[in-house]
Structure formats: C-alpha cells, structure tokens
Amino acid sequence: MIASYVFYLFEAVAAISAISLIFIRNVFYGALLLIICLLALAGIFVLAFAEFIAVTQILVYAGGILVVILFGIMLTTKISGKPLVVEHNNKFSATLTGVTFFALLIYALSKESFINTPSVASQENFNNLQLIGIGLMSDFVLPFEIAGVLLLIALVGASVVASSVKSKNT
Amino acid sequence: MFPTEHFLYLGALLFSSGLIVVIVKKNMIMVLLGIELMLNASNLNLVAFNQLHPGSVAGQMFALFVIIVAVCEAAVGLAIIIQVYRYYQTSVPDEVSELNG
User: How many other C-beta atoms lie within 10 A of the C-beta of residue A40?
Assistant: First the structure.
C-alpha cells in the first residue's frame, strides 16, 4: 500500500517542520520551513481527494505568500550583513499554553470516534473539480463574489498602507 | 481512504505549534508565520471532515475561502509591519508601546 506510506511521509514532514518552526531563530529559515510544511499539507490534500484545494494551496502559498513574506523580511532588516535572528520571550507561558491546548485536543479526539467508511458511496466516485466548479457558480456564488470584493479591498488597502507617499491633508 | 483521526491529530499539532510560535517569537513576521500555520491547521480539519460526506464539497469550499482570507490577512499584515518598521525602526512587537496605559 504505497499511498499510505506517502500519506504518513507527508504527515511526518508537516509535523517536523511545524515543530522546528518553534525552535528556529532565523526568520528566513522560518519562512522556508513554513513553505515546506504548506507543501506537505498540499500533498495531504491530494490524498484526501481535494485536488483543487491542493493546487490552490501551492499557487497561493508557494507563489504568493512566500514572496510577500520574503519581501517583508528584506524590508524590515537593517542592512548589516548578518542574518536576522529572533529572540524568544514568554517561554514558560507559551509552552504551558501550547502543551495544554494540544493535550486537550488529543483528549477530546481520543474520546470521539468517526465513521471512516461512508456506507453509500465513496469519495473516489465523484469528480471533485467538477463539483467545485458547479458549486462556485450555484450554491456558493454569493460568498465567491464577496471573497472577490474582499480580495480587491484588501490588496488596494495594503498598497495604500504600505506606500510611503504622505497624503495632502496631513 | 485514510483514517480521519490522523488528519485531526496532525491538525491539532499544527495548531498548537502555531499558537506557541505566535506567543514566543519576538518578531512580527514570525508571528504572521504562526498565524498562517494555525489557518492551515483549520483547513486540514475542513478537508478531513469533507471526506466523510461524498458528493458534497462544502468543506472544500470553506477551505478555499479560508485560503482567500489568509491571503488578505498576510498582505494587510505585512503592509502594517512595514509601516510600523518605518515609523519605529523596529520589528519587535513589544517595543511598539506608545499606547501603554
């Protein structure tokens, strides 16, 4: 069963890169680790029959957010030649919060059991891409349009906030 | 089809790691990375639960809109970080303390 090996490989990669993101001190390496984690998640999405989400994940995160974050790192670093190293604070409270939250989630999940095999039909019998296309134009057309407007507003707002030109009133 | 619990365990791990990253790092960009990690953990849960309902793509739609909102949040957040860096010459969130009570 090679698919299950691939699945657990992707899960291990995502888990290890997420955990090492806690301990890494270089911001640039942190961004690269996040991208590894997101690409592994895209692989998991493919294995969970969500191909469109996986492709969107790769396009948006590896192509968009990584570039934006790297530009952010570049623009907020003093030009000194040495890499940007981050200090850690609140170590005890962060560990307490994170470990407690994780233990709570694991406890709740271990109490619950999910029906793993749908009785009527399996996910493989459906064309997910077609279903998403039809859904975006029928049932989900209002959130789709609102998401488009939100993207437009956010990108215009981001470029206005980040621009260094002062407005005439101030 | 893989067991749903394994998706959910990974989601819990990713969310907790993102939470710790948000609290522990003294750099605004690292905090942003932690928020992205938490959003992706929720995405993983949505996709995992969508598996249990064949023929329905509501969970994947939710995941898609979460990705869109994450993009907006990253763009606006980085713009604010750059503007704060220009004004205060720092990217440590604790040093921006002019509104301290």
Answer: 21
DSSP string, A86-123: --B--HHHHHHHHHHHHHHHHHHHHH-----S-SS--G
- The DSSP bridge partners found for residue A88 are B25
Which residues in chain B are contacts of A8 at CB distance < 8 A? 6
Please tell me which of the candidates A86, A98, A155 has its beta carbon nearest to residue B27: A86
pTM: 0.88
Of B4, B26, B54, the CB nearest to A125: B54
List the 124-143 stretch of A: residues with Cβ below 8 A of B. Answer: 125-126, 128, 131-132, 135-136, 140, 143
When CB atoms are compared, the residue of A21, A155, A162 closest to B17 is A21
B54-63 as b/e, with b when 16 or more CB fall inside 10 Å? beebebbbbb
Question: What tens digit of pLDDT does each residue of A14-71 get?
Answer: 999 999 999 998 888 999 999 999 999 999 999 988 889 999 999 988 888 888 888 8
Distance CA B73, CA B67 (A): 10
Provide the token pair at B25. 């790092």
State the best of B2, B8, B24, B87 to mutate against chain A, taking most chain A CBs within 10 Å.
Answer: B24
Taking Cα atoms as reference points, which of A45, A12, A61 lies closest to residue B32? A61
* ipTM of this complex: 0.89
| Distance of alpha carbon A128 from alpha carbon A48, whole angstroms | 11
Say if residues A11 and B6 touch (Cβ distance below 8 Å).
yes
pLDDT tens-digit series, residues B29-65: 899 999 999 999 999 999 999 888 877 889 999 999 9
